[in-house]
């Protein structure tokens, strides 16, 4: 499907290796919004869906996206220009290492659905591999950038495989970024946890309670929690 329609915007995705998936929509809908964030940074933007979701959810005046793949970058720009919020959205065609060399801004929200699969195998599609595999954007590099670019009271939000949760939290603690919200995601009540939604700030909570989100009761029969989280975006929710 080359075009994905949401309630307030549409996303063209034919040039992007990574199509719109549940992970991005979950993260964009779940990301904590505190007070009135002025600036947002979306690292590894792909289609730009996270930036567009945060443009819908906030009044942030500066929403910057970063995309290294040329085709995805061009598509992200097209999607931004076609939206109601084009004056607030900007995409940089650069890698994270280039972007952090001369940081000009701090951001109140840094959001990323980073490429993962640290396993060794690669497919025949190098563009998809770049989008999917962690060596394109190691967690360490992402966290270092978040530490450098996050405003004093800012929030850094990601979705990662559940099996990587502990390591990711440990890496963040090394730069004094601490979890303030943790939600673990299961496909159904009977399946294992597959994803972790994590939000970090620069201070530590004395008590942190993780919660759980189940997506489906049965095939295409969604839980109330999932519907309530995503209903502002999905057409059929």
TrEMBL record:
Family statement drawn from the similarity comment of this UniProt entry: Belongs to the methyltransferase superfamily. tRNA (adenine-N(6)-)-methyltransferase family.
Segments forming a coiled coil: none
Subcellular location: Cytoplasm
InterPro entries xrefs: DNA_methylase_N6_adenine_CS, rRNA_Ade_Mease_Trfase_CS, SAM-dependent_MTases_sf, Small_mtfrase_dom, tRNA_Adenine-N(6)_MTase, tRNA_adenine-N6_MeTrfase
Positions of the Methyltransferase small domain: 39-125
Class of this enzyme: transferase
Record keyword Secreted present: no
GO MF annotation terms: methyltransferase activity
Function: Specifically methylates the adenine in position 37 of tRNA(1)(Val) (anticodon cmo5UAC).
Gene3D superfamilies assigned: Vaccinia Virus protein VP39 (3.40.50.150)
EC number: 2.1.1.223
Domain of life: Bacteria
Main location: cytoplasm
SUPFAM superfamilies reported in the protein's UniProt record: S-adenosyl-L-methionine-dependent methyltransferases (SSF53335)
Catalytic activity: adenosine(37) in tRNA1(Val) + S-adenosyl-L-methionine = N(6)-methyladenosine(37) in tRNA1(Val) + S-adenosyl-L-homocysteine + H(+)
Protein known as: tRNA1(Val) (adenine(37)-N6)-methyltransferase
Organism: Flavobacterium macrobrachii
GO biological process terms, semicolon-separated: methylation
